[in-house]
């Protein structure tokens, strides 16, 4: 059946299926590569990559004009010339960002600058600048990805995107593992990351249906991007602070090996949360945007229908990880990584709070992106304050708990704003509680199962 002849419900189900399938493949790839790479590399290598990628993501978000959102919501989002203008805009931006990154890393190579950083900080490592510059090439590669990816997200056609995600995630794994086996260093992770990004960029121009890209700057197209993107830019900057500043702050407060442990814990928590975020980023604006255009009175009902599976999954996984975190870490990783268990327990609480922020997409869909921006600013400020207070109170684990609990403030704020528009219903905001309790029980059962003799023998077989 042609996509344009399908109902919105059918397209949501189709798009959701491909999104879940894509993410399942990505999780499998990350899981097995992580298990093998943690055996070949020391925690410090993961800390270096985490810190470098945080800086890179920060640069991307600080200069983000929401080009994907512009394509999804614009009446001209299907026009060939408009797509080429957005692609040209992104390609230029990516190259300029990499130049800025190189300049910043060059400063860190100056001995006086490096010595001014806290002793033991990951940013004071002589390896950090070259690793960051090399990984920064993903900005350039991402900038020249075809704009047809955003076009197909607009159409809720995720099948070709699944294809390129699958290939770009799995192909680099053997090369990365072989590199780490022959030469155990952080450069194995860097090489695998760049190979995956290069494959995705090439395939976006070959596999994804839509017009071919070429450089084209039309003034009114750029004006539309900048006009809509000014609020997205503020929101993205705040989102970076809200989602990535934990690595920046901890990078100054704790040594590299401990940051590597946090990276492992965060990766496991993100394996659940990123699926929810994938569904949110790819579908919320498209779905709520279409509902707002065609049936504005039914935004609330459609929102809660769309959110239900996401909030149930978040509550189940949050409860499961809270009780099973130590057992999972001890079973999967060798003793060098066991301290990540308490970090994973703290991070699991953020999963419960995640669904409350989904309603932000409705504000963007009705051209009130400024609301989304200020909520992101609130989330960012809350996180920074929460982590600093938490660290003062209880050290690194306190900083993690403070960062997680800080999400309560923006969650309450967005719910109040949405309630004024009659989009939210207070009674429906508690639907997650039974699922969370079930998740706690499931985690306890998993802990008991992992503690049995059979699984312990299996673990010894894996790591012997």
Order of helices and strands: HHHHHHHHHHHHHHHHHHHH
Distinct helical segment count: 20
Mean pLDDT: 82
Overall SS class? mainly alpha
Rg value: 22 Å
The biggest sheet amounts to: none
Tell me what portion of residues adopts beta-strand conformation.
Answer: under 5%
Please tell me about this protein's structure.
- 79% of the residues lie in helices and 0% in strands.
- It is mostly helical and 464 residues long.
- The chain has two domains: 1-243, no CATH class; 254-464, no CATH class.
- α12 (219-253) runs parallel beside α17 (369-405).
- The longest helix is centred in the middle third of the chain and has 39 residues, at 256-294.
- The termini are far apart.
Summarize this entry quickly:
The chain contains 20 helices and no strands.
Give keywords:
464 residues; mainly alpha; 2 domains; 20 helices; 0% strand
